[in-house]
Structure formats: structure tokens, C-alpha cells
Write a structure and sequence with these properties.
CATH architecture of the largest domain: 3-Layer(aba) Sandwich
Bound molecules: prephenic acid
Number of helices: 11
Number of domains: 3
Strand order of the largest sheet: 3-2-4-1-5
CATH class of the largest domain: Alpha Beta
Radius of gyration: 23 Å
């Protein structure tokens, strides 16, 4: 069992304000922590003594939190404390609690301020491996943007779209019901109410995802969603244009790269290990072609942000890259 903290503020002591602020806080805590009626045990509230018009617990029930025990109490009256503040502690059977501090309460725990880490780089640079390790190390989320493009592809396949053109795909994507949820630190991809986290790994979806992700209408919509997620929670994102386009204000940006020779050797070893009979020279040629296409495509090309720290992984293994990045982040905070 874990304890999840949260807090928020209201601008005036009215039942409507309390209902609104408590509802918003609990819904974000539920989304970010993968809370369900089954894994939630209880919600404890405290309010500052300037709140007298309604119980925060009542607002929780009104927001749909019926199944667990609720309790309200009074926060100690400390001089200079933040006024009109409602604090929450949820006990739940989860692994990685993500605290949520909203509105004026965001300043209570400056150490918990949300931040994003952008890892960009060419394919084969090892950025996804390092992104996952980094998210685990910092106890923040790894936003698998690839899964989002795969979900778009699954949608198009389900709707029997034959050619992935802007005209055919745009209407589907415009109203797509795609939800990214986190359960015990793992991303679940929910499409039209169905958990498609496994389905999107099928080979036919991989092929379609690569084609569909090149469409501007798809990228635009997914980038909006990625920004929205990064606004709500700290996360690590990897890609080709995270630091330049998706999150240009990310405080930590890294450009993870390696020479095409080294990346080709890594890919060659990986394919050989899987039993594929490939030639090194062909793998190298493919990598170089892909680099060219990635950096020359019109929409979302691979670019290094001016303020990104370059990490050349030619002579480094994944653990060394992780240590280097963590050191750089610590130096900056
Ligand atoms: O986390 C909060 O809500 C705070 O205001 C911080 C803090 C603390 O100092 O740790 C202070 C008072 C609360 O009762 C609980 C925690």
C-alpha cells in the first residue's frame, strides 16, 4: 500500500469552489496514479480553518468517489501558511505514487515541480533504452509517443482505410478517443474505451504506424496530446523533434547520437542475434538513408535543439549514458 499526496486551493470559501477544486484534484490524482475503485482504500482531507462552507469529503462523493472511506480534518493553524488550502492523502494499493499539487498549492512543494526531459536523436542511438531507464531512475513517467502513433494506425486499420492520405485519415484523427493512462508506472493505451496496449504491438500495426506518423494531421494532434500530458506530469520523452518542436521549453534536453558506423554495428549485432542473415554494409547503407530521410523530411525533421546537451554514445554503454544524463540534470537543478 502507498500514500499519495495532493493539495489545491480555492479562491473563495463557497461550496461550488470546493466542489470544483476537489473534483479537479481527485480526477488528476486518479488519472496520474491509475486509481480504481478496487485499489483505492481511503481519502483523507484537511482544510485550512478559513474554509467553513462545505466538507471536502462531500465534494469527493459528488465527483464520483463513493467506494472508499472518506475523512475530513482541520489543518494546524500555522502563521504565514497558505490560505484556503485543501490537502489530500489517498491510500491505495499501487506501486509508484505520483503527488499532484494544483493551483496555489503548486508552490507548497517546489521540489515536486513538474519537468520534462527531451531525448532526441537518430535511430539506433539508444535513446529509447536510456529514456526508459531515466524515467525509472527519476521516478517519473516515460511517455511512449510511439504507442500513440500506433494507436492512430490501429484506428485507421479498424476503419478499413486503404491509403494513408491526409484526406482519408484527418477525419478519424480529429475525433479520436485516445487516452493514455498510467497503471503502476506503466503506460496503457486506451482507444475508443478499449485497452489496446497489446494489440498495437502487432507487426501490421508497426508498418502502418510508420506511414501514418508522417501525416501532418496525425503529428499535429498527437503533439497536442503530448504537450497536454507533459503539462500535467513530469515525464521523459524520446523522439526526433521533442526538444525543438513538441516541448521547446523543456528544461532538460539531450541529443543522443552515435556515428552511423557504430549504430549500424549495433543494429547488425541485434539482427544477427535474432537469426537474420544480414550484411554489415547493407545495414550501414540503410541507416545512412534513414538519417537522410529523417533529417530532410518536411514535417518534424530530426533536428538538434541549440540548447540540447549532445551525448555521443560511440564509446558508452546504456548505463554510462544514463549516469551522464543524470549528472547533467543534477548539475542544472
Ligand atoms: O504537502 C503539503 O501540503 C505541505 O503543505 C507541506 C507539508 C510539509 O511540510 O511537508 C506541510 C503541511 C502539511 O500538513 C503537510 C505537508
Amino acid at each position: 500500500m502507498k500514500a499519495i499526496r495532493g493539495a489545491t486551493t480555492i479562491s473563495a470559501d463557497t461550496p461550488a469552489e470546493i466542489k470544483d477544486a476537489v473534483g479537479e484534484l481527485l480526477i488528476q490524482m486518479r488519472e496520474q496514479n491509475g486509481l480504481t475503485d478496487e485499489n483505492m482504500i481511503c481519502i483523507l482531507f484537511s482544510n485550512t480553518s478559513d474554509i467553513k462552507s462545505a466538507y471536502p469529503a462531500k465534494a469527493a462523493r459528488e465527483a464520483g468517489f463513493y467506494s472508499c472511506a472518506l475523512f475530513s480534518s482541520l489543518e494546524p493553524e500555522i502563521e504565514g501558511a497558505l490560505p484556503l488550502c485543501i490537502r489530500v492523502m489517498i491510500l491505495a494499493e499501487i506501486e509508484n505514487p505520483v503527488p499532484v499539487y494544483l493551483r496555489g498549492a503548486a508552490n507548497l512543494r517546489k521540489d515536486l515541480k513538474k519537468f520534462a526531459v527531451a531525448l532526441d536523436g537518430p535511430s539506433g542511438s539508444g535513446k529509447s533504452t536510456v529514456a526508459k531507464m531515466l524515467a525509472r531512475k527519476l521516478n517519473i513517467l516515460y511517455l511512449d509517443t510511439g504507442a500513440m502513433y500506433r494507436a492512430c494506425a490501429l484506428k485507421a486499420i479498424g476503419e478499413k482505410v486503404e491509403r494513408f492520405t491526409e484526406d482519408a485519415v484527418a477525419p478519424l484523427i480529429e475525433n479520436i478517443s485516445l487516452n493514455i493512462q498510467y497503471t503502476d508506472g506503466a503506460q496503457r493505451t486506451i482507444l475508443d474505451g478499449e485497452d489496446v496496449s497489446e494489440k498495437i504491438r502487432r507487426p501490421e500495426v508497426s508498418m502502418a504506424a510508420s506511414a501514418i506518423s508522417a501525416l501532418p494531421c496525425v503529428r499535429k494532434k498527437m503533439v497536442e496530446m503530448q504537450r497536454e500530458i507533459a503539462r500535467k506530469m513530469s515525464c521523459v520523452l524520446d523522439g526526433r523533434d521533442i526538444g525543438t518542436h513538441v516541448l521547446p521549453d523543456a528544461p532538460f534536453k539531450f541529443f543522443v547520437t552515435a556515428s552511423s558506423r557504430v549504430r549500424a554495428k549495433r543494429r547488425y549485432d541485434e539482427l544477427r542475434q535474432k537469426g537474420y542473415d544480414v550484411e554489415y554494409d547493407n545495414v550501414l547503407q540503410e541507416i545512412e538513408e534513414r538519417d537522410y530521410n529523417d533529417s530532410h523530411r518536411a514535417f518534424s525533421p530530426l533536428r538538434q535543439a541549440e540548447d540540447a546537451v549532445v551525448v555521443n554514445t560511440d564509446e558508452m554503454n546504456a548505463q554510462e549514458v544514463l549516469d551522464f544524463i543524470v549528472r547533467k540534470i543534477q548539475e542544472k537543478v
